[in-house]
Design brief:
The complex is a heterodimer of chains A (557) and B (324). Chain A has 557 residues and is an alpha+beta fold. Helices cover 31% and strands 20% of the residues of chain A. Chain A has 19 helices and 21 strands. In chain A, strand 17, helix 13 and strand 18 form a beta-alpha-beta unit. The longest helix of chain A is centred in the first third of the chain and has 18 residues. Chain A is globular, with a radius of gyration of 26 Å. The two termini of chain A are 26 Å apart. Chain B is built from 12 helices and 2 strands. By secondary structure, chain B is mostly helical. Chain B is globular. In chain B, a hairpin with a 4-residue loop joins strand 1 and strand 2. Classes of the chains: A alpha+beta (557), B mainly alpha (324). At the A-B interface, helix 1, strand 10, helix 8 and helix 14 of A face helix 2, strand 2, helix 4, helix 6 and helix 7 of B.
Chain lengths: 557, 324
Amino acid sequence: MSAMRQALAIPVLLFAVGACSGNSRDRADNAGGTLVISVGGDPESLLPPLSSTVPSKIIGDLVYDRLAEIGDSMNTVGDAGFRPRLAKSWTWANDSMSIAFHLDSSARWHDGVPVRSGDVRFTYHLYSDSTTGSPFAASIASIDSVTTPDSVTAAFWFHARSPMQFYDAVNTMSILPAHALEGVRGTALRTSAIARAPIGTGRFRFVRWSAGQSIQLAADTTNYRGRPGLDRVIMTIAPDFNAALTRVLGGEADMLEQVPATSLAELARDTSLRAELTPGLDYNFIQFNLRDPKRRSRPHSLFGDRELRRALTRALDRRRIVQNAYDSLASVAIGPTVRAYPTTDTTLRQLPFSPDAARKTLDSLGWKDSDGDGVRDRSGTKLKFNLAVPGSSKARNTMAVLAQEQLRQIGVKVNIEQLDFAAFIDRETRRDFDAVVGGWHVEASPGGIRQTWGTPGSRATSGSNYGSYENPAFDAQVDSALSAGSFGSRRAHFTSAYQAIIDDAPAIWLAEPKRIVAVHKRIVMTGLRPDAWWANIAEWTIPADKRIARDHAAPAR
Amino acid sequence: MGVFLARRIAQGLVVVGLVATIVFLLIHAAPGDPFSASMDNPSISDAVRASWRRAYGLDRPLTEQYARYVVSVFRGDLGFSFSLQRPVVSALGDALPNTLLLMAAGLIGGFAAGVGAAVTQVRRRGGAADRILGGLSLTFFSVPDFWLALIILVAFAYWIPIFPIGGAADPVMYDMLGTGARLLDRLEHLVLPALTLTLLYFPLIARHQRAALLDAIPSDYVTTARAKGVPESAVINRHVLRNALLPVITLLGVAFPALLTGAVFVEKVFSWPGMGLLIVNAIQSRDYPLLVASVILASVFVVIGSIIADVLYRWLDPRMRDEL
């Protein structure tokens, strides 16, 4: 801050201190301070049914509430571990076909209107209405209807009993104010005032969105769940990563939520910052296309062969590849899952690294280097394929190059195709590829695996199983896992499913990156949840003796 | 002059129409569409994507989409941004003033620095100042926009931390400042991006201006002025410079695209919320309406710049008026 700015700040600070003197109780509670988070772009909308980018989700989760919130254990079966939010309690029907949520009667919207069960029913209808076009509609398809026995009770009725009923009811929907959205439907929702200036019940209230610059939230000091530990949360927009990092290192922002491993050393040199490493919900892999991209009725000329896929998997030193791409900031992926799921068995049997075994397998399959050019061939066909990778991901590019080199050593030629992200997705979804370096960011529940690796995801035109892996045994284990009522049974079925797919090798699982968050040391955090690191921001604090000028600048509310 | 202006405006409209059409066709021909990114999310069903495409008319044939777009543009409606979820006019309305401010600062700074450097070089031709300024001009002419912006960002973040390094206003303090302090805050945030654009633009002016000055010096009127005993500084500033400004004035026409291109990178690095950022995001997200509207706006600026250059040229050089 320049000298002139500091001079100007003094009266502001004096004013702020004076204004805050009446809030001695708040000060005694040690609440206060401003958290400035650097994010990569503007949210597309602040209406939760229509927004899916990270900045939108952060704002949505701080301004709005769900009925209950998933706990740190990340359990998604039944209601164990879930924390009350707008619903202070809930009652299961004897036949488990419905759950009655009892709302906190003291909850108020930020415009002062009381929260009622009609808001919950309205929210369900809005999310599920096809004219809304919400990407989350499919996530609440198991809910049949929502009724309102009284003004503070909302009952969810389900089509069928399932272990995921509670999760389905509470995890997707942020409860919206019916009085502010009544009569607004379809495309009009996108242009509604509330899509840019949300009215929620969360512990932070929306203040201002300056497009392309910043979004400001302030503590809701009279919130039914209590005042948050911070006065303000400000998200500043820095689209260029280097600029974002510089802003954090330069002290203009307190936090950067996704720091690549390559920048960690730079971060470590700044003594005012610390890096928080948390488990992530991402994993990446080399995915083989098991069907011929030109004629999908027949298998891929190379990858239709299970033994060949297993040989390629054994030829890669995945540990070395991951270390080179991420240093110690990622684990070797263990399959189509992440370690953050309590249902993941981390001792799954892997295909071990053994180039010699890979060579022997390829020899036995008839793939030999008959012309001495270093590339194996069979019946005049070279053992070569294209590997598509999105140019935007440095880590995925590094891993592609290392895999290319390791496969070259066993006589396999790999042509790397670096594509613009939209072109990459286009090729992937049209299934017009030999192999891709893909990646999935998974939800809090492992249920999405049906779409990404199961037969339903392979056969549906909109399915995300781009490699067309199909194995009835895998599907059956996944279905059993998702319908299992006990945690132990669920875990056992998932373990069998993962083992089946690892043995079939429709992909080479590469890395499971950790999330690296850079944050100023004066910020006291209370844990970063893998699926939403921002989930506990309302509990974060800045000790009074560590506050800097901008922490004192927050207006008293 | 009226006929001249009408003809130039008509030509400009044709150019803008052509540019808009080409961009419209090219962006639609590129792989992927505005909802490609959602393909990465397995929980979004095909039906939802289809409903989005239907809602925005993307399921219609390209010719129909184009015809609808042209009609809506003539009605003053530039469409709805898919990525920003707001009308394009509103998004441009937020971004355009910021970019104009930045470009104006870069243009004025670049012009002043370029002309100043060229005059100094000519007055001290062959000397150390000439060589140093020539070297600096060549250096800044050669460096990539993005790299220079990053160097300035790093320099002012760590070594000379006197100016804010990002955004158009202080996100924390701005609301609590008075009018004067807010103006100062905006100016402080403008310094680094404007400085970067100035450094990128000044070599273009300096090199053209120096060459034009050297061309003008052997002219008869210069010899006459010197023979009359006019001091050398007055010869350069009053006689040579006025005539040598003509070729540089024409650079105004090309300054807009050059500045806009530079602004794209500068805005990204300094998080300046202007048109450059909109264009980059629109390309990345295949946001057809936003991209086409941004390009239309940019080409309108290029046309306006070139008309202004023509008018200035004719104003400064009476011979040009006789040619019509």
